[in-house]
Amino acid sequence: MVRYAKSLGCNDVEFSPEDAGRSDTEFLYEILGEVIKAGATTLNIPDTVGITMPGEFGKLIADIKANTPGIENVVISTHCQNDLGLSTANTLAGVCAGARQVEVTINGIGERAGNASLEEVVMAIKCRGEHVLGGIYTGINTQHIVMASKMVEEYTGLHVQPHKAIVGANAFAHESGIHQDGMLKHKSTYEIISPEDIGLERSNEAGIVLGKLSGRHALRDRLKELGYELDDEQLGNIFWRFKAVAEQKKRVTDADLIALVSDEVFQPEVVWKLDDLQVTCGTLGLSTATVKLIDAAGVEHVACSVGTGPVDSAYKAIDLITKEPITLLEYSMNAVTEGIDAIATTRVLIRTENSHVLTHALTGETVHRTFSGTGQEWISLFRV
Predict the structure, then answer these.
(1) Residue 174: what are its φ and ψ, rounded to 5°?
(2) Continuous segment of H or E residues that includes residue 302
(3) Domain Pyruvate carboxyltransferase: where (predicted)?
(4) 18-27, 73-82, 180-189: segment of lowest average pLDDT
(5) Under 8 Å between Cβ of 314 and 291
């Protein structure tokens, strides 16, 4: 397969021996040497089931480097699973032993307990690479870490646990009195990483508080501080949504702005736009929803329906307009910020009944094509 890949013109061919962490080492050296002869340029060494200890995995990388013929001509890579919670430690051990490529995932998502976390590995190298890891660095712009983490969380629906290192909600929270006193005197007392280094802004340097009287210039300036460079059209769209939020809230937070930008800038092309929604529900009868949608041509469509609850009735009304039979697989809503006036992010996962049906190659399980979408709304609109 390696020779075949080279014959197709692939300049970088990666070979990965499954479950290398538990393989016979002499056989492993032999196989790796042969794939190097065949043209492999990257050797990816996986701890497939996450069973090795950091010392074991580091030694494995070092032994491969010392005993594999032709190893000096290729890049050694690592791929560590997190079944025992050691994926980041094993990855760093591999780097110390000579690996120069690491396979990681944002938020550590992956099969079973996940993979080595990009943000943990990158920030560990940033913090300790020069003094402990022999000057290793990644070249990654770490100020995009929080933004990337939130984007993956939003699109996958896999929520980051609050105590997750680097990107968890509590990663830079300090509750202990002694810790708070130390933070007030000098932040480095209890923070080994500045939140600004990963794109988490706690407050702006100018002390500007955004509210309903704020203008475009102040909004553009704050968005720029948060890492968003928007053109005039995008800023205009964000500005009017910002004003709507500011009318409802005394102060618009950075989390509010990030949610608005994500919803406005990073969303796919709109086919149907929700223009209005009215729901009546209670304990005395069926819930009733009236929905107004605007199609891609700008034409308004209105429909009413009843259902077992506000969400069910709303989606049945939508079905009457779109005339596309679907099954609602997931509906979830989470607050972006604190308080009763908080913005919420809503995740919807649907499956069309007329979609193509696939069969999983390994399990034979029937797989239907699914569609997902996210958006921002006011929690108060959904208090039913």
Answers:
(1) -130, 115
(2) strand 300-307
(3) 1-146
(4) 180-189
(5) yes
Tokens of residue 191, six digits: 């923070």
- Residue 208's pLDDT is 56
What band does 330 get if pLDDT is binned at 50, 70 and 90? confident
- Residue type (1 letter), 341: D
Highest-confidence range of 28-37, 203-212, 261-270, by mean pLDDT? 28-37
Backbone angles phi, psi at 39, to 5 degrees: 120, 5
Name beta bridge partners: 81. 115
Residue range 61-78, pLDDT digits in tens: 999 999 999 999 899 999
Q: Is CATH 1.10.10.10 the right assignment for the domain spanning 1-156?
A: no
| Whether 206 contacts 212, CB under 8 Å | no
Alpha-helix residue ranges (DSSP H) falling in the chain: 2-7, 25-38, 54-67, 87-97, 118-128, 145-156, 177-185, 216-225, 232-248, 254-265, 310-322
C-beta contacts of 135-141 below 8 A and 24+ residues apart? 136/95
186 compared with 109, residue with greater pLDDT:
109
Q: What angle do CA 189, 191, 197 make, to 5 degrees?
A: 135
> Which pLDDT score, from 0 to 100, does residue 351 have?
77
